[in-house]
């Protein structure tokens, strides 16, 4: 076995030892990322936004939002790159999809708004839904940081396009 074959085996072994989520976090990109905020019993904003890797932004305001209805615009390449960086720093792919079990001792907050974030990367799609169970504050913080980044890109793109 020559040196290049040995090196190839080492690289394959290293890649194989990385978990699926860690490998994805290391090579983060997305076809689209979506955020949905659901209604609560009070005056929480309810809307959805989807941002494509090409910069396309599709927003739909439902209730308690300054922009109601559907709006389409574009985000800059720098804004999309900032979302990729936030996906990486929040470790989105390493967050378990069902981290807030319904049989937990910590119930969901009655009437709380939900936050749903979905990411599509090729054939892989991951969705996380936070319904205010409060069972994992560290995960709540990571989801909130990503939601804030998505909101920021969408709001800036909508404002810059005069919508």
Give the tally of structural domains: 1
Structural class: alpha+beta
What's the name of the CATH homologous superfamily? Mago nashi
Number of strands: 6
CATH class annotation: Alpha Beta
Percent range for β-strand residues: 25-35%
The helix/strand order is: HHEEEEHEEH
Low-confidence sequence ranges: 2-26
Enter the CATH topology name.
Mago nashi protein
**Count of helical segments?**
4
- In round numbers, the mean pLDDT is 79
For the record, the CATH architecture stands as: 2-Layer Sandwich
Major beta sheet summary: 6 strands, antiparallel
Assign a percent range to the helix content: 25-40%
Q: What does the radius of gyration come to?
A: 19 Å
